[in-house]
Write a structure and sequence with these properties.
The chain is of the alpha/beta class. It contains 13 helices and ten strands. It has a single domain, classed as TIM Barrel, CATH 3.20.20.70.
Length: 359
């Protein structure tokens, strides 16, 4: 067991990696075409917070109804290859009793599952977090596989501030990500490893670059120690951006160049794909940044580069729905439009004019 008092303690995951061919087939399907992933794995507190912001009652039935809106969106499988679910959602069904996970599969969307249990304060390191959820994880992974999930996600959170992140925080979180990834592969699930350097704060782009690069180097060192098969995982990092409160924001082209350069310096070519989190960017900016990376660097990328957005795909739909049945078709149209725009960005074909044209 990894304790918060001993963040550098190493856990050895024994046994051979099984089902390698199945894992790689899943990876290839998730990264196929110009599609990306939809993250709909918000925890209950996070989902309730977003409901509160737009005036939707924070109840389990409204959460179920919202997730039904998402999974029944016409044509979603044309744009989305995989959907990351939350534990509550993977067990839920439509009003007519059809399991969400079955609807996704019928649409050609691979179901995945968030398996970390959120963050807690890292002992002895004010302002830093450690992710929980390793205890009992192998059993939960087996259960999720039986339910139909074929990939999983674990998020580690790295904050930038005065004197942080510390090396101890980075090492502890990247070690946990590697242990989780090894456990996933043994259970037949593709691990999505998500080391998120948060946008919060006044730091500049260079600081985000330096921290992101260090985090990724430590992550891949730990994945190697745990004998994780890099060909059977997907990386979900942040883009390299100035902090939200930085007085000097960066152009779309600058963010694209910094992000791709950082990844080329940090991510082995064996990794098949990178799917970005949006991390608090507006839907339009997240799409523009992804597009710029493909426009400028398409022929230099050793891995697939696509999206795994949550808010940056869902926000327009949620604001349109407002918890009202009569708004469902319009909200679904917004969701589909946003996914299509990100498909265009993955091809390097997105332009801001498409926002108005599609609307």
């Amino acid at each position: 067991m990894l304790t918060h008092q001993h963040p550098a303690l190493h856990i050895a995951v024994t046994g051979t990696v099984m089902n390698t061919k199945e894992l790689i087939n899943t990876v290839n399907a998730l990264l196929a075409g110009s599609k990306g992933l939809l993250a709909m794995d918000e925890s209950t507190p996070t989902c309730n917070k977003r409901f509160e912001e737009v005036g939707i009652p924070q109840t389990i039935e409204y959460r179920r109804a919202y997730r039904e809106l998402i999974v029944t969106t016409p044509g979603l499988g044309d744009c989305i290859s995989g959907a990351i679910l939350f534990d509550e959602t993977i067990h839920q069904a439509t009003k007519d009793g059809v399991l969400f996970i079955d609807l996704l599969k019928q649409a050609g969307i691979i179901p995945g599952i968030k398996v970390d249990e959120g963050t807690t304060d890292l002992s002895g390191s004010p302002g830093e977090k450690i992710t929980e959820g390793l205890d009992g994880l192998p059993t939960r992974l087996t259960e999720y596989y039986a339910l139909g999930a074929r990939f999983a996600k674990w998020r580690a959170v790295i904050s930038i501030g005065p004197h942080i992140p510390t090396s101890e925080c980075i090492e502890a979180n990247m070690h946990e990500l590697a242990v989780y990834a090894a456990m996933c592969q043994e259970a037949g699930l593709v691990p999505i490893v998500e080391p998120e350097v948060l946008m919060d704060g006044p730091h500049d782009l260079k600081k985000c670059y330096d921290v992101t690069e260090k985090v990724l180097h430590v992550l891949f060192e730990n994945l190697d120690k745990q004998n994780v098969n890099l060909k059977a995982l997907i990386l979900k990092p942040n883009m390299v951006l100035p902090g939200l409160n930085c007085p000097r924001q960066a152009s779309v082209a600058t963010v694209a160049e910094a992000t791709v350069t950082c990844l080329l310096n940090s991510v082995p070519a064996e990794v098949p794909g990178i799917v970005f989190l949006s991390g608090g960017q507006s839907p339009e900016m997240a799409t523009a940044h992804l597009n710029a990376m493909h426009v400028k660097f398409e022929d230099k990328l050793p891995w697939v580069l696509t999206f795994s957005f949550a808010r940056a795909i869902q926000a327009p739909a949620l604001e349109t729905w407002k918890g009202k049945d009569e708004n469902v078709p319009a909200a679904q149209q917004k969701l589909h439009q946003r996914a299509c725009l990100n498909n265009a960005a993955r091809r390097g074909e997105y332009t801001p004019n498409m926002e108005n044209n599609m609307a």
